[in-house]
Amino acid sequence: xxxISLRKCYVFLVVFIFLSVIISPVFAQNLNxxxxxxxxxxxxxxxxxxxxxxxxxxxxxxxxxxxxxxGEYSKIIIKEIDSNSLIPGEPSLPKYNTLITLPFGSExxxxxxxxxxxETIYLSKKVEPVNYPILxxxxxxxxxxxxxxxxxxxxxxxPSEMYVYHTGCGLSNNNHVTFxxxxxxxxRYSPKTDIIEYTKKIDIExxxxxxxxxxxxxxxxxxxxxxxxxxxxxxxxxxxHKNSYGVxxxxxxxxxxxxxxxxxxxxxxxxxxxxxxxxGIKYVLLVGSIDELPIRQTWIGxxxxxxxxxxxxxxxxxxSFSSWDxxxxxxxxxxxQVDDDVVDLYPDVYIGRLACKxxxxxxxxxNKIIKYETSTYGKKWFNNIILCAGDTHPGWGVYEGEVTxxxxxxxxxxxxxxxxxxxxxxxxxxxxxKALNNGAGFLAYSGHGFExxxxxxxxxxxxxxxxxxxxxxxxLNIDKFPIIYFDACLTSRxxxxxxxxxxxxxxxxxxxCFAWCxxxxxxxxxxxxxxxxxxxxxxxxxxxPIDGSGYLSLLFFKNYNQSTKVAQMVVSSQNDYLNNVSYxxxxxxxxxxxxxxxxxxxxYNE
Length: 606
Known about the structure:
By secondary structure, this protein is an alpha/beta fold. The chain is 23% helix and 27% strand.
């Protein structure tokens, strides 16, 4: 169902899985700030100064691990911990993640963890290995449990390091901060002897230096709109609308941006950096197709990824410019290369794109944004959430899509769920249009995706249930615009062309991707979409998604109550993902926001 070849999908999958296997735990980044953290984390707020070095102390307590037999394996559970290690083929052990936010530009001098005495448990079966991810486009070529025998035949303790930490900088509660992400393993395992050791108490000391002076002192504007100058008159109503609601907006044409930077993308990024520091910009709206306002192409495992995250990730933790090309070879965001680029990945500004190809699309989308923000608040239809899914990978156990969106329901309790599932025969193009025409604040889809539509399967059946571009003709949800999250491949592939459609790669006539078609549609459609520019990966268990695209989508909805703007939901989900999952640049890079980043979710309360 996708325009890329099946062979390429297999190669891509093999590369991704190999990347996951070889990743060092040093890159694991973690966050667990929602439920159990409040019960376990005690923060000593007394700041001690000694030659400008400050300290913070944390105390953690854990229950005795429970050992449950799961088929031929042992499953290790600690009731206060809801995440596990994620390196495929290696033992799945409880992993505790915590995140500390410090003033932007803080220097981490040292992190010291002290463990209480260890106690031993003898196992009757080996600890279960971590499942391999599945490509959302083809069946998996690996068994669910494929063990790394280099680990399982070793007597040494796993993991070798019981804690690691990682620093970054980005946005938290609309503030620029330094992140300190700490990953701890209160249980370690000797695979050869089938023994685990555990500790019940961990004390953490953090030593750091704060910056001498704050970097950001100006607050002249909130929103920066970047666009070719020819679109200014069509964007003026949006600029006036934003200003009237206190979102101070600055328009700058692409023609004005020049100077520092090796190409147009880097010039734009340097300009955004200056706009943050000189004007206090918080949101950046890119207006134009990628032919007019270029996107950044990055390289992961030898394959290209398109991402606007490049424009949002401005700084390294030491406040220096994050070029995404630290090896200086002109290939950006390289990962799993001979000389990888160092990339922070945390957004430092909220970013979104209106991928308009002409003035008519701009005029229509601007009118939709103004209508949404001024008339949505208080409408009953907004309290609906449509959940559309099926059995993404027939024959692979759980119905991955349905499991994922069922978890989304749990984190959106104030919304009325409208389930469109293949398992009960309720998902079809007609039923989806009917639900959208009745109105919904959100649509969460989990399944397969491609440039021209979405599709998934009935339980254990490879037959397709699809919704494609022609079905948009039946979508007439006038003034009832949802925010849509596509947990799927390729729906936001902005470099989609006629040559891709007819299998003649030398024809470069641009076509609109599926996600943008929802936004540009007249007399209905969506107000914003989040989708992937490339092939997506996922790992879903009976308990829900644990990483990849499904987990990122769950985090997006989990952040609804902590956010007022759509881009805040996106950035918070990216931060949470980076702090919970082993280093995975592809997932956070390829899922982009098409829409106004400063869009007030649910509209203004007038």
